What does this fold into?
Amino acid sequence: MYNSEYLNKILEDVKRSNPNQPEFINAVVEFLDSMEEVVEKDPRIEANAILERFVVPERVISFRVCWVDDNGKIRVNTGYRVQFNSAIGPYKGGLRFDKSVNLSILKFLAFEQIVKNSLTGLPIGGGKGGSDFDPIGKSDGEVMRFCQSFMAELYRHIGPNLDVPAGDIGVGGREVGYLFGFYKKLKNDFSGVITGKGVEYGGSYARPEATGYGVMYFASEMLKVLRNDSLKGKKIIISGSGKVASFALEKANTLGATVVAMSDRNGWYYDPKGIDVEFALKNAKAKGETYKAYIEKYPNVAHGENNHDIWNVPCDIAFPCATQKEINVNDAMNLKKNGCFMVCEGANMPTDVEAIHYLHKEGVLFAPGKAANGGGVAVSCLEMSQDAMHLSWTFEEVDEKLQKIMKDIFHKCYDAATLYNEPTNIAKGANIAGFKKVYEAMLAEGLV
Ligand code: NDP
It folds into this structure.
């Protein structure tokens, strides 16, 4: 319950109109928790029904995806695109292919993306999409046929100035290539309609690295400002072994931190002396195989199959970089008990709302994904710029821009948190600073 009647009504309406969508409701609650003083200070928000509009997607597209597997059997999946908010730019957000995908998860991700994209300072709105297709164990041919069938419908709803998808869980360079190729064939048009492309055909240098590197740049700035500290010499945990986790691992190592534990969907492993970074990186590309490969090579390291147990590992900083709902309140308690002083999210909403409240109460620094993992979408937007200008920046140029963007994101969050008298509450600062730009644009554009 909030003190504000207005916020209570918004939350009630969201719960009533989105039954059985717990992930989406969680994301709205996490956002509304920061809004009490904002709606009180600016009466234009309620007078113009800004929040009523902000929590309802502008458009949700759902479609059938039929494809043929290697045995000639017809398979059917569901595809989605949630176009949530276009007040400050074309919809932008990744595509997720995973068997867990449903509308609740995609709406939560698209909702998070609105604030995240606004914080980058770049002109991009919020969207997300994907399918319950499970790429694990599928051949290249099966993945290509699925991607082509998916794009055969999606192409009607996207465009370089309308909606620009990218990758996410289960969608990497291979999938982006197949999706882009089929869009080009259908539209007879070579344009920057999807990001995360290979550099040979319009992709940006440093896009694969951007989210993981960006998380470490954000954490470094936060440590510098709030603790006069750095990552050097810190013991850290990174969950996951995918695109975000592996480049976070690489950058953490370069910045002098020791990564003591990692995981994938099959399990976690821990070595207090520091894991073998080179080996972990080499195996990070094999989906579902990283954990198995590591414990086969190092059978004596502590390990297990329950992913929550990774949060029992003693560390200074935890970087959840796998998926949503990784850290519950018990995990947060274990982290705190074992000396962790900061949680920095690489994934989207890996920490549940109760755990976030606990971390704040206990003085554990918390960096929300919507701020800390914004480097991926920021470089995606730089890819859109390069495509539009028909030129290509070097790796160093993009990395330099990324470092500046991540610093700026931190300072926007910190300044807003300070203005609202809670300088260390970066999650609140992120929500306020990201929302402000979007609602000013909504006010300027009128009722559309
Ligand atoms: P990937 O598919 O490359 O990697 C995901 C990793 O998480 C894999 O190691 C996977 O294990 C593991 N994983 C997936 N589901 C589970 C689960 N239920 N339990 C435990 N582990 C799991 O995805 P990304 O690295 O791209 O994305 C990771 C997170 O970061 C997501 O929340 C995504 O939304 C977010 N994100 C990604 C961005 C990007 O640029 N890619 C940008 C911003 C946010 P396995 O190896 O066994 O498959």
Notes: The chain has a mean pLDDT of 97. The pocket of NDP is lined by residues 167-170, 211, 240-245, 264-266, 287-288, 290, 307, 321-323, 346-348, 373, 376 (CB under 6 Å).
